[in-house]
Amino acid sequence: MILEVAPLQIVAGREADFEQAFLQAQRIIASMPGYISHQLQRCIERPGEYLLLVVWKTLEDHEVGFRQSAQYQTWKQLLHHFYDPFPVVSHYREVPGAV
Questions:
Q1: Which residue in 9, 49, 51, 64 is a FRET match for 42, CA 20 to 30 A apart?
Q2: Phi, psi values for residue 74, rounded to 5°
Q3: Max Cα–Cα distance, the chain, nearest Å
Q4: Given this model, what pLDDT does residue 67 score?
């Protein structure tokens, strides 16, 4: 399994709009092959900062299956205009025996 980690900085004053758009967008990602689960966390100390965590079966499920899909275009239209700056997404895998 792969953990996608996306720190999101949302344009000031647009947090509520972003959260509403995310409620729609999450249905897209949840329908993708290889998707396992996701969480959206909002920072307490910095309310415009969010952390999106998505668990995928493989890196390719995210990088190819999702990002190269027609559904990704809808995801982009719903969410990308809220980001400032655009997030740097990282992928992590579990360290065996460290759980």
A1: 64
A2: -70, -45
A3: 43
A4: 97
